[in-house]
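Hello Y.,

Per our agreement to keep a running log of every chain we model this quarter, I'm adding this entry. I've kept the format consistent with earlier entries: sequence first, then predicted structure.
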Amino acid sequence: MTRWLVRIGEALLTLWLLVTLCFVLMRAAPGGPFDVERDVTAEIRARLEARYHLDEPLPTQYLRYLGQLARGDLGPSFQYPDYSVNELIAGGLKVSVPLGIAALLLALVIGVPLGLIAGTRAGRWPDHVASGLGLIGLALPKFVLAPLLVLCFAVWLGVLPAGGWDATDLRYAILPVLALAAPNLAYVVRLTRASLIDVLASDYILAARARGIEGRDLLIHHALRPTMAPIIAWIAPATIALVTGSVVVEQVFGIPGIGRYFVQGALNRDYTLVMGVALTAGVAIIFVNLAVDALRTMIDPRLRPD
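Predicted structure for the entry above:
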């Protein structure tokens, strides 16, 4: 229990540092949230700044924002005056979260079996094929892969939409999910292969083989569980990759997700929107890290505290 209390305390400290760093960097950047608007009189600009408390000293603004966060209020958006940041992020999460989960599941469902095949047949042609596919996935960054998918499936074949979003039509999600899943799938294949090869060379596997256990029984009942431990640990950095990768993918496909709001907020100096997105991503990453640690402890008893 003490260990988890310490972890929760570390998470809260990390979030506070994240908020503070974002607040300082956003205010230190040149320009302001109303510089992109057409020229306005000094009186109108003063009213806008007073409305959003930007005329107050920075320490006062910082304490005011922390007070809002304590109430669960991410503040108003400067560039979307009809919406609060909470509403914008909630709408973006309805799009980004299903896409991210689908991409992660696709990478695991396809990558783990391919990695197992490669690991059990190391040095043979299935291993070379799976490893080659993994290298291709790693070599193609998302900002290259996404346009290539559009070119192939939307322009040449004309079977899928090139962009946009319609929650009632799953065809709009196929290309973004593929673009997000491809690099992660490559990591899963290579990680599963390497982990399985190490496990198969361990002493207790050799002992199981000495007792006549081979083939599927050896893989499922003895090798699979320890092989999956590194895969579960990988989920945390994979979540970070999905969050950062969604920025590019959502821009390419014109998807109204949280990554697109982050880009638009940064370009428009929308302080509260950028900080809200960054804080949401930070909370998600910390939560996933805690969940992954719990799963690793359940799978590997050696990680449990004495």
